[in-house]
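re: ur question from earlier - yeah i can do the single chain one, its not a big deal. heres the input i used so u can compare w yours
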Amino acid sequence: MSKIPPVMDARALSAAFVLVFRQGRSPPSCPAPDDNDLLNRIQDAVPSVSPAICHEALIRVRRLSFDASGIGSDFLTGQYGSGESAQAAALAKLEERNPGFSEAEYRTAFLVGRMWAGL
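and the output i got, formated as tokens:
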């Protein structure tokens, strides 16, 4: 299980999540993601948060994106079984590997990860 940093600003984490998952700015398959641009956008969204915390948020969301793609691929090949229990197992694995996100964010990450895995 991953160690959670002692201080993580939920606003920074959410801003990073929106950029990566909801605005589709950096799927794991992107050959040259512009992390500097993403970091600047996170800092613009939450200017009261330190650059170090924004950077940590980006790292955590990028890790979530890679795991979502891998878990999405495993799900599509049936490694979690089938039906709702398979989706629940995949979501539980995503949460286990990437603690600290909301239930809605895990669901979004899983759905986007499945889409990325199918590309």
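Residues 16 and 61 are 6 Å apart (CA to CA). not sure if urs matches, ping me
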